[in-house]
Amino acid sequence: MASLTSSSRRSSSSYRSSSRYSTSSSRRSEGSLAPVGGTLTGHQSSTGGGVRCLGDSYYMSADVSQFEPHDVVVMAYNHHVVIHAQKVQDDGSISDTFTHKSLFPEDMDPLSVSGTLNPDGTLVVSVRRTTTLGGLEPLGVPTFRSEAHL
């Protein structure tokens, strides 16, 4: 049985040269466990949606409506997909950050990670599976890291 976990964190903070740092809020959500090829439904939270498997792809979503597209970064490494966003003000301070990290089953294709930013600010990340629904062995699981800036 392959497993899937996800977590989200949101915080607002201010960092200045005087080393003053404050955090106003922080949230975290956890995903769920499911068999490879099964339907995945994660814990729904206000910061990110559940992860699910539909056909030959996995999908996850996150609400990044309070960020500009250039503030959002999607990273993939090993079997993880991380959505990270932060607002940097003109004076260099960080006013808001968001991180959503998901661990996908071993049959994810790391080179197929793609994202779509909807007009309502929802980022939908899709990852293709390396196996077919018939249960063939994965084509290979390379160790890698990739990063995309929206």
UniProtKB/TrEMBL annotation:
Domain SHSP: 40-144
Pfam family, one: HSP20
Region (Disordered): 1-49
Bias kind Low complexity: ranges: 1-26
Cited InterPro entries: A-crystallin/Hsp20_dom (IPR002068), HSP20-like_chaperone (IPR008978)
Family, similarity comment: Belongs to the small heat shock protein (HSP20) family.
Record protein name field: SHSP domain-containing protein
Record organism: Etheostoma spectabile
Lineage: Eukaryota, Metazoa, Chordata, Craniata, Vertebrata
